[in-house]
Each structure stands twice: as C-alpha cells, then as structure tokens.
Amino acid sequence: MQMKKLFLAALVSILLCGCSSSGKIRIGCAPKGGVYYSFGIVLSDIARHEGIELSVRETSGSSSNLRLLSEGYIQLGIAQSDRISHAYYDKESPMKGYSAVASLYDEAVMIIVKADSGIQTVEDLENRRISIGEEESGTALNAREVLLAYGLGPENYITEFMNYSEASKALADNSIAAMFVTASPDAEMLRKLNEKIPIRLLSLDDKIIDRLGNVYAYFTKVIISKDLYRGMEEDAKTIGVRSVLLASDSLSESDVYTLTDILFDHKSEFDEYLGSDLRIRPESALDGLTIPLHPGALRYYDEQNYNTDHLR
Fold this sequence. Notes:
The protein is α/β, with parallel strands linked by helices. The protein has 11 helices and 10 strands. Strands 1, 2, 3, 4, 5, 6, 7, 8, 9 and 10 form a 10-stranded mixed β-sheet that branches. Helix 5 (138-149) links the parallel strand 5 and strand 6. Helix 1 (2-17) crosses helix 2 (35-48) and helix 2 (35-48) crosses helix 10. It is globular and about 55 Å long.
C-alpha cells in the first residue's frame, strides 16, 4: 500500500509538470498515454527507492529512441525488437552504442476484419483494399513481411497507409476490407472499435509462422484468445515482436545490473499499475533479442543460470 501511494504521488507530479524529476539517467519512452510511457514512470518510481534516479522523456517511440540512444541523448530506451534488429544491423548506416537489458512483452501482428466478412485467410486479402499502417511504420514493415510470406506482393492488393484511428473508421464503414495492427493484443483502440462492430482476427498458418520465425529471429509465436473480442469464435494464431528495454553502452554495469534486477524482483508492481498490457516475466526475458546484452544485464542473467551464449 505504501508503494502504491508513493507511485500515485510521483505519477501526479510527473503528469502535472509534464516531465519527470531531473534525474541523471534519461529514459526515452513514447507519447503520454501509451504503455511505453507508463512503463517508464513505474520503473522510475521503483528505481528511485533503489538509489537510481531516472528522468522520463516523452519521444516519438521506437525509431526515435534508437536514434537518441545511438547519439547519446538518452541512456535508456524502449523499442520494438524488429526495429532494433533493422537499425543495429543496417549495412549502410547502423545505429549502435546501446545493448539489450530485457525483453518486456508481446506486441502482436494482428490482421483485423469485420466478424461477418467473408475473408477467412490471409490469401483472401488478394485484390482487396487493406490498411497496412502508416507509411514507414513498424506495422507497415510487419504487414509486408507477412503478406510476402503468403506470396502477396504490393501488386496483389490495394494498399492504404492509415493510422489506427483512420483504419478503424474505414473498416467500420467498409472502405477497407482489413487492417494490420502491431500492438498489445488487448490494445485500447481495438477495444473501442469492438464496441462499435464485432471483429475477427485472422490466423496465420503454422508453416508460415515457422517460416517467418526462421527468417526473422525477432518474431515470436502469439496466441490471441477468442474471448478477447466480440465476434471471435476461435483463438487466433499469429506472430509478434517484443518490446525491449535498451541501455546505452555508457551506463555502468552496476546500474544496469540493478535495473535488470528491479524488472523481475518487482514484477507484481508492474502488473498492478500497468495491467494486462505489460507482463514482465523472467522466463521470457530473452525472447526476441537479436543484439548483445549490456554487461550489467549479462551478469544478472549469468547469476540466474540463463543461457546467454548467443547474446554476448
């Protein structure tokens, strides 16, 4: 109860002033209202009681955080595992200077159709008008990867670049046949769409899931419960990426070790304040990671007898 009171006081203070305390370790999150930003606030509050001061910074999200980390403007950041892999290993202009701390939670690649739609499989999207997310977004990248795995190139469907709000409206009024979303499976905007219309999530074939996982190491298998949305009659099988906490290589081993320990020693507090959007679990701490671990995180996992050979 005392921890909850302290957290609520810190949250009110942060929201009122529009920034966090002037800590020396800056963590890049995303716009206020999203899970990344909420996670940053909770981590900051808990870390303060462990002697580490964090300053929560509002950013544009994954791509912005990767750039800010590589340029030294922030020392911690959150990003999608696929964006990390692309940025870190880019052959022309790689972004480096940071390492992995922990894999946090799943962001599923979802294909949403109206529940009464005749579309049953991904192949049925051929020659249909679909939203694949905003141009140059992570969703658009994931959509193309999935569609291409089914042999569908841009010439095989009518592409619409829409944000989630625009796509939800277009799906509801039948302007598009389907929309791609990469987000937490119980994303708020999907819940709002489901209040208006019954929806259904398309499942990916097991062979396609295995193929995508073999080609892109950052993909994991995700099962979305049929009970999540009105209109679903069976669980949906798809792929997902992981949200990942990253640390600058300039951060000390000691600080990152402590932060890694905080993630798992206080997982019940993250669950309490962030709900089902964030499930930090030790058993999935390395899922979807494709870049080396920070020495501080590596020390923590080695002490816990994790297999970290592929992440050194």
